Structure formats: structure tokens, C-alpha cells
Amino acid sequence: MGDAARSAFAVEIRERYLDIARDRWPVSVDPLPDELLSSWLHRLALANGIVPRSFAGALGFDERMWSPRLDLCLPRHVAKLLADQTGLAIEDISGMTTSGGAMAPLLLPLRDSAHRNRSTWMQYCPQCLAADDAPYFRRQWRLASRVSCFAHGCGLRDRCPACHAGIATFDQGELVPQHFCARCGFDLRAAPKASIKAAVRRLERAIADICRVEAAKGSAKTSDAVSRVLRTPVAADVRSGRTLTNLSTAARIRCFEALAAKPPEWLVKDMDTADAYRRWMIVAAGGHEALISRFVEFLEKHQGSPRPKRFQVVGADRRALFRAYLKIMVARDGRIRTA
User: Is the pTM of this model over 0.85?
Assistant: First the structure.
């Protein structure tokens, strides 16, 4: 017997996982900012030494795309099981889902595989994954209206650049972190940076802010804004037979490039003057925060004569005031929020 043979050892699975970890799973992991439930489940499985494909059985599932389906609909008994086994509150677990909310119609449809010009269910930013201590997938990456990373200014990707497959961590059969392609093993952190024009990023941020602000106000216009965003391929004359959610990330970037070169009439047509003007101003400014900054600069430049010192508030910051107000309003929405 050779040295290699003598040093080899076999790994044999004897007991069922639920039999040896019935009361509490050995390891729990904390959710990360804006983390998607399926992403957390994949990290939880890896931490407990079980591959995601098999972890589905621990939760009572045996279907494909089991974890992405839980993102959309988390049964109460599964939420309770996860809470009991990890020690996390049910509210924290449910908060990682994408169910409900005004932005739900913009979620990319669940597809295990898709043609190169069709959408996949998940996007990612390679630079975000590279910067993470524990790489994870964000809830905002599920939205068809997102085509770039606000943190790194690069375009998102929806496929592995090596084998062109979509993200399929739910079907991973090996104990490897979720940023490795489940089909070919490519490290998604090494994906080339996707360039995207500044005008597209400005339009994308404006669209996100319009939907978010109107949703925070509980406005009936929210569904109108989302409907218009879904029909952007028609407005841009890009694959007009499809809605935005059915296009690949590359096709959606081209769609936004075409829209960025046009006036935003597609977003305000047939609206009353006040609402149309507000949307137009947000698009022109490149986002709600940029609009607030312009408003504050206007006030500071054109405000009347300064008040007597005894009436002045030392250290007053109008930008901080408006941002705080926006955060309070957005927090009331409670579902899909941008990071």
C-alpha cells in the first residue's frame, strides 16, 4: 500500500442531520445589512457543514430553487423552525424576504436557467462580494430597476462570466462559499468590472427614489410609477414586447441608456402638474438627495436677512434635517428598502 493510500481517509455520513441537531443547530450566523433570506440560508448551511442542496431537506423541501422561493413566501412554520434553531427573532428572519411591498412587481422572476437575453433571478456586484468579509447577496439586487451598484459605480452582473450560467447557490452540492459558481466553480469576485454610463446611474437612482419616496408616503401614485418603470422597454424602443423584468441585466442597461438620452415624458405623461413636476425635478437632479441638496442651496442663497443672534440655531444643518425626515418616511414602508 502506497503512502498516499495509507494517508487517505473516508468520510461517511451515518446519522441524519436532524437526528444529531434536533434541538438547536450547532452554528448560527447573523444576517448582514440588506441580506436576502436565501443568501443567509446558504451561509447558515455552510456554517453548519451541510451543502445548500441538502439543507433544503432540513427545512422540509426537496424542490429546485427552494431558497429563492422562500424569499417570496416564507411559511410561518418554516420561520418558526429557523427562529427556534438559530435563536433569531421571527421578525428578523421575515425581514429578509421580498414578499409584499410596493416594489414587489419589479422583482426579477425565478428562473433556474434562461436565454442570454432573458433575465435571471439574481444580480450581483463583484466588487461588493470582494469587499465583504462574508460574501452575501443583497435584496436590492433582486429588483429589475437596479442595473448598477450605487457603492462602486459599476454595472451589475446576472451570470457567471466563465460559463454564462445564472446564480444557482441553492443547487450547490459542495461545501464552498456562495460566491463560487455552482455550475463551474468560478469565483464571482473575479468577474470583470462592468462599465456603465453616469447618465444611466443618475436615471436609475432617480427611478429608485421616486418609487421609494412615493411608497413611503403611501401614495396611490406608487403603483403608477412602478407600472411605468415596468414598461420602460416600450418607452425606450428596446425589445418592446417584453416588460423590464424579462430582460437580462445587459439589455436593461441598454434600455436605461436609451431613456437617459430622452426627456422623462414617459414617467410623467398624463399626470397632474404638481406630481409630474416633482418627478421631473427628481430625474433632472439625478435623485431625491441631490434634489434636496439643490433645494437647500437655493434656500441658503435666497433666504432673507439673517435673524438676530438670539434667534439663530447654532449648527443647524438643513441637509441633515431633510435626510432625517426622508429616513423616517421610508422606514414606514417596511419592505424592500435600498441600502
Answer: no
